[in-house]
Write a structure and sequence with these properties.
Pfam families: DUF4037. The chain is 50% helix and 12% strand. The relative contact order is 0.12.
């Protein structure tokens, strides 16, 4: 079973009924976002050695967090099952400890965590709101972080605050997108001639190294032209292979005019 479906079932069958009983008035969002190969569907047996298992993040207001989060984490430890669908719910062989902070609370005994949306945004992007983002902020975001926040799954969203934040970060605004395309073309242009030049002097190894690097850069261009966030290197090839048509539309009008957008050059 994939981790997202495992966690969806964990929330639906275990966490949601329990919260309805112990905190029926609580307004919250439930999701699995932020970290893990399962967020983009690439988890497998090896993934089970790091932060994989039945887990769900509950997002509440700052007031609700102060009033309810820590005692709910403690109460769930008393009533939670030891496993769900054969998978232990405790923190097992995971590099990241359970959530623990001013606005984050978890337990090594289970995968239920409480957060505020503001704290998750601060941890992920060094900001507490997605409203009115400027180009400099967008250019400072790692695509893997953006992918992890906008992928995964939302199981419940009472006030739609989480949904709105994910929507705002769904992809780069047009001006930032065009700038990144132009920069990627420039990166490719700076090295594309060196494959043959290294070969001319008999440096076959060097030529292959440059070619491999260019292939990676062209793949990342493909993500840009398809308006998809590129994952970090472990899943770059797997995600690229899932391209809708597995073609890189290098002749698209937006791509052809990206340099012109930046400095008037072709």
């Amino acid at each position: 079973m994939k981790g997202i479906e495992l966690s969806r079932g964990f929330y639906t069958e275990i966490v949601r009924p329990w919260l309805s009983q112990v905190a029926p008035e609580l307004s919250y969002s439930a999701a699995l976002i932020g970290y893990g190969s399962e967020l983009i569907g690439f988890d497998d047996e090896t993934s089970k050695d790091h932060n994989w298992g039945p887990r769900v993040h509950i997002y509440v207001s700052q007031d609700s967090f102060r009033n309810d989060a820590r005692w709910l984490v403690a109460e769930f430890s008393k009533s939670a099952p030891a496993s769900y669908l054969g998978e232990p719910i405790g923190w097992r062989s995971r590099p990241h400890p359970p959530a623990n902070g001013v606005e984050a609370a978890g337990s090594p005994g289970h995968g239920l965590e409480f957060h505020t949306l503001e704290a998750r945004l601060e941890e992920h992007f060094a900001l507490r709101s997605t409203a009115s983002l400027n180009a400099r902020q967008w250019l400072g975001f790692a695509e893997q972080k953006l992918l992890a926040f906008t992928s995964g799954a939302v199981f419940r969203d009472d006030d739609d605050r989480l949904g709105q934040a994910r929507h705002r970060l769904e992809y780069f605004p047009d001006d930032v997108w065009l700038y990144k395309i132009a920069c990627q073309w420039r990166r490719i242009a700076e090295e594309q001639a060196f494959v043959g030049r290294a070969g001319q002097v008999g440096d076959d190894l060097g030529s292959r190294v440059i070619a491999a690097r260019l292939v990676r850069d062209v793949m990342r261009m493909g993500f840009l032209l398809e308006r998809r966030y590129a994952p970090y290197s472990k899943w770059l090839g797997s995600s690229f292979a899932e391209s809708p048509d597995r073609k890189i539309p290098l002749a698209s009008p937006s791509a052809c005019h990206a340099f012109e957008y930046v400095d008037g050059a072709r």
